[in-house]
Design brief:
Length: about 325
């Protein structure tokens, strides 16, 4: 491996220029993916489900299934499938599974409820808090040291989220505030997820960790959460509706976004890759304007920029763990 230098801008196999492009592209794909999921949630049968939570669980189950199949296809093409069983039995594999529970059934379901109540762009603006939450959790449970700029970043992240959502947009859902609460729970889930993913990424490559994460998420959603809510009839109806096409496309886009984010982390390190990737908030606002004709307010755009700036400070000032790839499974990451 060649260290990055001014004469040789290359880090861990991916060029710096390619890393910037991958980070920006992953943000665009995640932003578009969120808008398509939001579009699907407004269609039949989700719109008539009578429960935002049930609709979110059914939609999440389909989305995670698509993403898992896409990832397994990549594993088969690269010869990783034969390593999957051994990885699952290992301690790092189990940590990846725990990360999947926080990132899937908890964070993703809450995110999809937030889509329905607060809108995609506003929900995403709140999830930009996840780096700050992860930094505080690392401080509390992992003994991480935070530089002054990280503390400033945490303040900016919180302030940006508040600025983006303190005033509901025109024509907002009556439960807009509840949507913000669900988005906060999502940010908490995405903040906790990397704590467990970090241990897995020490010994397993990102693709295997991603497969175990998505496999656990899909299994828990399909075999535990969905039957508890009595959601199989809704799932069956969703699978035969037009909305499943949008969910399938969104699943492929988001899974591809994960891969691009991993390439960005490889080329730039998480300290630079994550803030660029967090532009998914702005991409979601842009795609929402083009596809859903949802005009973002200035508060949302300004708050998103402040939150992204705060995230950059948090990740760059996260002390001794700030350059470990612990954020590679975060929301968006």
């Amino acid at each position: 491996m060649t260290a990055a230098t001014p004469d040789h801008p290359h880090v861990r196999g991916t060029t710096v220029r390619a890393g910037w492009l991958a980070a920006l592209s992953s943000g665009a794909l995640w932003g578009l993916s969120g808008v398509l999921v939001g579009l699907a949630l407004g269609m039949s049968p989700y719109a008539a489900a009578g429960s935002a939570l049930l609709a979110a669980v059914a939609c999440s189950t389909i989305n995670e299934c698509v993403r898992l199949c896409w990832q397994l296809g990549q594993d088969a093409a690269t010869g990783r499938l034969r390593r999957l069983a051994g990885a699952l039995r290992s301690r790092p594999g189990r940590l990846a599974c725990v990360a999947g529970i926080f990132g899937g059934p908890i964070a993703t379901v809450c995110l999809y409820v937030a889509y329905q109540y607060a809108g995609v762009a506003y929900a995403y603006a709140i999830t930009a808090l996840s780096p700050a939450i992860g930094a505080l959790l690392g401080l509390a449970f992992l003994g991480d040291r935070l530089a002054r700029r990280a503390w400033l970043g945490i303040v900016l992240s919180v302030g940006g989220a508040a600025l983006a959502t303190y005033r509901p947009p025109a024509g907002a859902h009556p439960h807009f505030a509840l949507g913000v609460v669900f988005a906060l729970v999502c940010a908490l889930g995405y903040g906790i997820e990397p704590i467990f993913a970090a241990g897995a990424l020490h010994l397993l490559d990102a693709a295997l960790v991603n497969t175990l994460r998505m496999g656990t998420s899909f299994t828990v959603l399909a075999l535990v959460v969905l039957p508890l809510l009595g959601g199989y009839p809704l799932l069956a109806a969703a699978l035969t509706s037009r909305s499943v096409l949008w969910i399938a496309v969104a699943g492929v886009l988001s899974s591809s976004g994960y891969l691009l984010f991993f390439l960005a982390v490889d080329g730039l390190g998480p300290g630079r890759a994550m803030p660029v990737n967090l532009t998914y908030v702005l991409w979601a606002a842009l795609f929402g304007l083009v596809i859903l004709h949802a005009r973002p307010g200035w508060g949302l755009l300004l708050g998103a920029l402040v939150s992204i700036t705060g995230a950059a400070l948090v990740v760059s000032g996260g002390g001794r763990r700030s350059e470990e790839p612990v954020t590679a499974l975060g929301a968006g990451a």
